[in-house]
Amino acid sequence: MSRINLSRQHPEVYEQLAAFSAAAEEAAAAAELSPNLIELIKLRVSQLNGCAFCCRLHTRDALAAGETADRLSVLPAWWESQYFSALEQAALGLAEEVTRLSVPERTDWDTDELTPAQVSAVSWLAVVMNAWNRVAIRSGYRVAP
Questions:
Q1: What string of pLDDT tens digits covers the 145 residues of the chain?
Q2: Residue 26's closest CA among 125, 96, 126?
Q3: How crowded is the C-beta side of 110, counted as CA atoms within 13 Å?
Q4: How far apart are CA 118 and CA 80, in angstroms?
Q5: Residue 143 in 3-state DSSP?
Q6: Cα 105–Cα 137–Cα 69 angle in degrees, nearest 5
Q7: Nearest CA among 134, 137, 45, 51 for reference residue 96
Q8: Which of 47, 56, 61 is nearest to 100 (CA)?
């Protein structure tokens, strides 16, 4: 029994994570992060964690929010492309740092593009997305065509 559906086993904990996620999204919107950037952050964190369920979910959500296939296709190598604004690059770099917990801390994203509210919002989005990735992976969510 290596995989069990965590949301079914303890639905009250899952509901708290959903509330936490909603609060992080509200903070991101209040910090004036665009819906596209929010989805890019969620997708990039999911890519780093290898969560197929969340990669598919947030790719679809990003496309629905108006994101382009070109930008999504180069997201795994965002720093090598010219598709992303300085603000987006800073946010993606910060989200990667939160996900990887780099030691020593990486600060190449810290270009003064993000306001303190945006740094906090991106950090919370990455923290929440890391939690969702772990729920999906640990629960063995199926990802089939």
A1: 578 888 888 899 999 999 999 999 999 999 999 999 999 999 999 999 999 999 999 999 999 999 999 999 999 999 999 999 999 999 999 999 989 876 667 777 788 889 989 999 999 999 999 999 998 888 888 888 8
A2: 125
A3: 8
A4: 23
A5: coil
A6: 75
A7: 45
A8: 47
Rounded Cα distance between 48 and 43, Å, is 9
Residue 104: cis peptide before it, omega within 30 degrees of 0: yes
CA angle 137, 84, 70 (to 5 degrees): 70
Residue 17 DSSP one-character state = H
Q: At a CB cut-off of 8 Å and minimum separation 6, what does 75 contact?
A: 40, 43, 44, 47
Give the three-state DSSP class for 128.
helix
pTM value surpassing 0.90: no
Closest CA to 25 of 137, 135, 136, 127: 127
Q: Half-sphere exposure of 97 toward its Cβ, with a 13 Å CA cutoff?
A: 19
Kindly give the residue spans of alpha helices, DSSP state H, lying in 33-115: 35-49, 52-64, 69-74, 86-100
